[in-house]
């Protein structure tokens, strides 16, 4: 069963992620650790305006990335000199974490914090000395900025980095052992007992949803089979059977609102996900599967949210509100096949429709199946069914079905498939558009007597498309480009890709004439295969194809989980030829690319 903290967290359902830091200015997803704090200077930053947007959308909270993998701390910390005091913003006196904390308190929504365990700047990372730094950062963030509903410890740990100038690869082994997460969580409980811990290995409170698309597998079980098992194995195992009750571990789904990454990028405009996608592919497959949803809305270099992101967020928030505004089952009367102890006042079928999530219909202990027939106040037309268990008593139901009385007979509109179903915190199911004044919930298999707190009948609103998105900027036209080996990487089609095979051959391209350029982008293959997907690269230019100059090198971060276009900027240079080389790949020894674009200097 959940702790009270977990239960209250699950009832938040959805909230914002806010990625904002030095990566916003470098165009990277994962900073190396050697970035200049002098870049950070958001002249129009207004935390109240940003938080107000989240509240207007109906979000219950926000989580801010106070320190990402680059180690730059966006609060006034004493743990490291690599912090916001070294930036020109507010003459080094600014504190983004504090401003967000104050704004959340003023707006009446919850505040959470992200602090990366991996620190690519700190010279002590990978050694015992780093723990003192990391623990101090956690203590500052949880001790100086008010109540936090969640703290996030990302799963990226160790690898190449700056590390105080060492510029080397450091492997920490088992994160649980190195960071001593049991010790960390114990201290968090002392500082903020109601704070949910994400990502602390076996000691945390919630699991990652398994991808960065904003959805979780269904059925979605809250109990974990083995705490050390990675979430992908966890969800795969649970497709076929209910888990052993070792520990209550609910899931959280995460995704950016646009397709350019977690941080703001220059090519972000017009890449926002549609409201329909956010509803069907994100919300209904995360919150609708019983998980929480954390939706990222990145802040740009001026310190503001992009207009297209805001429009999509608000329109989606409006659609969500319309979906939940009218429950056609509310106030319905009913009869049940069994009521616990015959006590209809406490456990009767009307508890499903009284609008109180704490009350529930329940059967006697010996009855692990049962049904409730509900008579609506008047005929209603709906196409979404929502069911909730009283999760204070655990997750019990394995199979259920919903029937509607149509043309004088019961018609099943939603039933268990071959893998079975769960309910848990909640499940929202799309069903055929149905008009009726009578519905029936059948629990056909349950691990113990079912305890159901709600059955709702909802109508999905018509979703208007947001204004036509800006056409994606693909840079210089490619009509005259030529490449002997990488033609599929410059054909303008992200659905095709070039793959070198086992040898990581570079791509050399003749652009036909000289251009003054200042950026390139790399789009990894989009077929779901990681072979040859470049994570470290070099990019060179030439005027004659003989003498080459390296203008960019580095890392494409997080491609394994989020294989999106990566745009890298450099000082303007004249070039007719460019050469892209893969230094290493996410998987395999070769190199691959779906598309490479070149952007002119402005």
Which descriptors would you attach to this protein?
7-stranded antiparallel beta sheet; 602 residues; 10 helices; 8-stranded parallel beta sheet
Task: Describe, in plain words, how this protein is organized in 3D.
By secondary structure, this protein is an alpha/beta fold. Helix content is 18%, strand content 31%. The chain has 10 helices and 26 strands. The protein has helices spanning 4-10, 23-26, 47-57, 96-107, 129-144, 175-191, 231-237, 275-283, 307-325, 344-347, and strands at 14-18, 61-67, 110-115, 150-152, 159-161, 168-170, 196-198, 207-208, 223-224, 247-248, 251-256, 292-296, 333-336, 361-362, 370-389, 397-406, 409-414, 427-446, 451-458, 498-499, 507-523, 531-542, 549-555, 566-585, 587-593, 595-600. It has an 8-stranded parallel β-sheet, with helices on both faces. Strands 13, 14, 15, 16, 17, 18 and 19 form a 7-stranded antiparallel β-sheet that branches. Helix 5 (129-144) links the parallel strand 3 (110-115) and strand 4 (150-152). Helix 3 (47-57) packs parallel to helix 9 and helix 5 packs parallel to helix 6. The protein is globular. Residues 225-241 have low confidence and may be disordered.
């Amino acid at each position: 069963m959940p702790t009270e903290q977990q239960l209250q967290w699950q009832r938040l359902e959805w909230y914002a992620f806010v990625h904002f830091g030095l990566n916003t200015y470098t165009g990277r997803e994962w900073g190396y650790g050697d970035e200049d704090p002098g870049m950070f200077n958001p002249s129009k930053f207004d935390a109240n305006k940003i938080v107000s947007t989240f509240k207007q959308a109906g979000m219950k909270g926000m989580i801010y990335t106070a320190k990402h993998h680059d180690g730059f701390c966006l609060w006034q910390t004493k743990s490291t000199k690599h912090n916001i005091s070294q930036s020109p913003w507010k003459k080094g006196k600014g504190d983004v974490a504090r401003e967000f904390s104050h704004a959340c308190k003023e707006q009446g929504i919850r505040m959470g914090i992200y602090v990366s365990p991996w620190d690519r700047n700190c010279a002590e990372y990978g050694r015992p000395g780093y723990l003192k730094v990391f623990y101090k950062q956690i203590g500052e963030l949880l001790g100086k900025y008010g109540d936090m509903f969640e703290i996030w410890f990302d799963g990226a740990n160790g690898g190449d980095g700056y590390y105080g100038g060492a510029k080397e690869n450091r492997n920490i082994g088992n994160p649980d052992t190195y960071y001593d997460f049991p010790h960390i969580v114990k201290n968090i409980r002392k500082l903020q007992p109601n704070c949910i811990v994400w990502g602390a290995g076996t000691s945390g409170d919630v699991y990652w949803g398994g991808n960065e698309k904003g959805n979780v597998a269904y059925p979605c079980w809250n109990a974990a089979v083995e705490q050390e098992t990675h979430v992908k194995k966890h969800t795969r195992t649970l497709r076929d059977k209910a888990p052993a009750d070792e520990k209550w571990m609910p899931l959280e789904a995460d995704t950016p609102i646009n397709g350019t990454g977690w941080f703001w990028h220059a090519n972000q405009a017009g890449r926002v996900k549609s409201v329909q996608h956010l509803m069907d592919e994100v919300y209904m497959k995360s919150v609708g599967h019983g998980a929480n949803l954390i939706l990222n809305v990145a802040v740009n270099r001026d310190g503001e949210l992009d207009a297209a992101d805001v429009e999509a967020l608000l329109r989606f928030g409006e659609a969500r509100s319309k979906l939940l505004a009218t429950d056609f089952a509310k106030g319905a009367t009913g009869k049940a096949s069994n009521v616990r102890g015959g006590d209809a006042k406490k456990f009767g079928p009307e508890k499903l429709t009284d609008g109180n999530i704490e009350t529930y219909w329940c059967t006697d202990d010996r009855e692990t199946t049962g049904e409730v027939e509900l008579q609506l106040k008047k005929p209603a037309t709906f196409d979404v069914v929502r069911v909730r268990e009283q999760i204070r008593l655990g997750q019990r139901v394995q199979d259920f079905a919903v029937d509607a009385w149509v043309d004088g007979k019961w018609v099943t509109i939603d039933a268990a498939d071959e893998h079975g179903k769960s309910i848990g915190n909640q499940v929202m199911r799309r069903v055929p558009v149905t008009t009726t004044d009578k519905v029936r919930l059948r629990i056909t298999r349950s691990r113990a007597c079912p305890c159901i707190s709600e059955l709702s009948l909802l109508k999905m609103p018509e979703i208007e498309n947001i204004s036509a998105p800006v056409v994606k900027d693909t840079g210089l036209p490619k009509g005259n480009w030529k490449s002997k080996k990488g033609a599929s990487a410059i054909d303008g089609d992200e659905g095709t890709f070039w793959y070198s095979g086992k040898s990581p051959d570079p791509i050399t391209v003749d652009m036909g004439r000289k251009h003054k350029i200042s950026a390139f982008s790399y789009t990894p293959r989009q077929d779901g295969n990681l072979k040859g997907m470049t994570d470290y690269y070099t990019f060179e230019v030439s005027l004659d194809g003989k003498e080459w100059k390296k203008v960019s090198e580095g890392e494409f971060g997080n491609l394994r989980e989020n294989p999106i276009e990566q745009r890298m900027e450099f000082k303007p240079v004249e070039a007719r030829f460019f050469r892209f080389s893969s230094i290493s790949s996410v998987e395999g020894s070769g190199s691959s690319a779906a598309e490479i674009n070149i952007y002119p200097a402005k």
